[in-house]
C-alpha cells in the first residue's frame, strides 16, 4: 500500500492595511464640506482593501 499524503492548509496572508483585524480607524470631521475641521475623535471603519475579512 502506498503511504498517505498529508496536506496542510496554509493560512492566507494577513491584510497589510488592517493587519488582519478587518477594521481601520479614520479621523472624524465636523462641519460643512467647505469648513470641515478634524476633532480629537476616531471611528472604526471597514477595511476597503480586504472588505473586513482580514486576509489579503
Give a topology summary.
Layout: E1 23-30, E2 37-46
Antiparallel strand pairs: 1-2
Characterize this entry briefly.
With 56 residues, the chain is mainly beta. The protein is built from no helices and two strands.
Describe the structure.
The protein is mainly β and 56 residues long. The protein has one domain. Helix content is 0%, strand content 32%. It has strands at 23-30, 37-46. The protein has a two-stranded antiparallel ribbon.
| Largest beta-sheet characterization | 2 strands, antiparallel
Residue stretches low in confidence (pLDDT < 50, at least 5 long) are: none
Gross morphology is rod-shaped
Strand content: 25-35%
Mean pLDDT: 81
The multimeric state of the shown protein is single chain
DSSP strand tally? 2
Strand-pairing-aware structural class: mainly beta
The structural domain count equals 1
Radius of gyration: 20 Å
In spatial order, strands of the major sheet run 1-2
**H-E order:** EE
Query: Percent helix among the residues?
Result: under 10%
Q: What labels describe this entry?
A:
Molecular chaperone DnaJ, two-stranded antiparallel ribbon, 2 strands, 56 residues, mainly beta, single chain
Amino acid at each position: 500500500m502506498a503511504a498517505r499524503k498529508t496536506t496542510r492548509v496554509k493560512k492566507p496572508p494577513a491584510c497589510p492595511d488592517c493587519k488582519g483585524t478587518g477594521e481601520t480607524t479614520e479621523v472624524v470631521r465636523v462641519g460643512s464640506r467647505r469648513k470641515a475641521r478634524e476633532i480629537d475623535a476616531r471611528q472604526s471603519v471597514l477595511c476597503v482593501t480586504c472588505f473586513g475579512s482580514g486576509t489579503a
